[in-house]
Amino acid sequence: MTGRSPTRVLPSHLAYLRDLHLVEERQGDVRLFPHTEQLPAIFKAIQNEFLVGISARMANTDQRADDYRKFALYELVRVFCWQFNAIDEDTLLVFPYFSRDGVAGLSVAQHVEKTEDLGIKHSFRFFAGKDFLPPIFLSGKKVAFASHVLDRFRERVTSGSSRNIGELLWLLFSSSIIMVLCPNGHGEAAVASNFFLVLPFQESESEFLFRTCLTVDELRDLSPIETPRSLYFHYGKTFTPPSTPATSEEAVRSDGEYFVDLWKNQETTKYQYQSLYKSYEKMKGRPQTIKAKLWSIMAKESETVSKKDWPSGGKWKFAEGIYGPCMLSHADKLQRFEKEDL
Question: What ranges make up the beta strands (E) of the chain?
Fold first, then answer.
């Protein structure tokens, strides 16, 4: 079962965090890691590590910057988080966040574990500067994970090549829309934008509790729910459902039926899943590769790739106009369920 020792020592590959002992905070039946009092020092150190590797121009990006520059900064933040989290998985997590102006920044994830009668419930808070950021909600409700989700993510989604919780959070929270389908003839499951991270959930008046990850065979048993439904991640509790052609009941029903049919085709599902597995297979040696490569070199490579990835006439916008953890670099594609790409 997912757990951790009461004290950790951060690996010495990051100069600004060398010799820092990370400790766990306990409040009754709640465990928080890292300790809340350590978060300002940790954030400052990680921010320094990030800034020394990027150009002064990118470091000074603010709300006045054009859309491409904001996109390029996000790519730098995303790659840094990927590098940092990959080196020593699940010891300490960093995660991207956005200002209301679409400017990306770093945050430190605090892992909260609460012991309940049915097991441990996991949630995450994100810290930047001197305080916690607005929490990530799903259509107006809190988000939590059963231990089974974290324990099964590695074997069921990443072919055993990664156990990184940060990767799970990124795959889920960066989804522009969460499609809801029915697993195994009962209940509801959230389908992330990569199509293969499918998490059955239990919903209460105030919370979505994700219970497990479906296997590839279980994907073939998904079916549409009676009333089409989609969910959206956003910052803060206040939420107004989007009203666009892509989020209409008809569009959501069509997308759900399409992917149910797609998953029932065993050859198609096998091909897509193998492609996903191959991408993770390539990552198996990544900690050693990353340790040997300075962040400044990776940052320069990221800026070069960003220029190639930026579409002509592109816009940097929050998905469906919702202030949350997903931004897209296309003016005319605010939904990631692009059928022709599969």
Answer: 7-9, 21-23, 25-27, 30-33, 93-98, 104-116, 119-128, 131-132, 136-138, 142-146, 178-182, 188-191, 198-203, 207-210, 223-224, 230-231, 233-235, 317-318, 327-328
Q: Which two tokens stand for residue 241?
A: 């459902």
Domain ranges of the chain: 7-334
Q: What is the pTM of this model?
A: 0.86
Q: Say how far apart CA 274 and CA 198 lie, in whole Å.
A: 16
159 pLDDT band, cuts 50/70/90, is low
**Span 3-13, mean pLDDT?**
47
Q: What is the pLDDT of residues 119-143, one digit of tens each?
A: 899 999 999 999 999 999 999 999 9
Mapped onto helix, strand or coil, the DSSP state of residue 13 is: coil
**Contact status, residue 77 vs residue 105, Cβ threshold 8 Å:** yes
DSSP secondary structure, 95-152, as one string: EEEE-TTS-EEEEEEEEEEEEETTEEEEEEEEEETTEEPPPEEETTBEEEEEHHHHHH
Under the banding of pLDDT at 50, 70 and 90, the label for residue 256 is confident
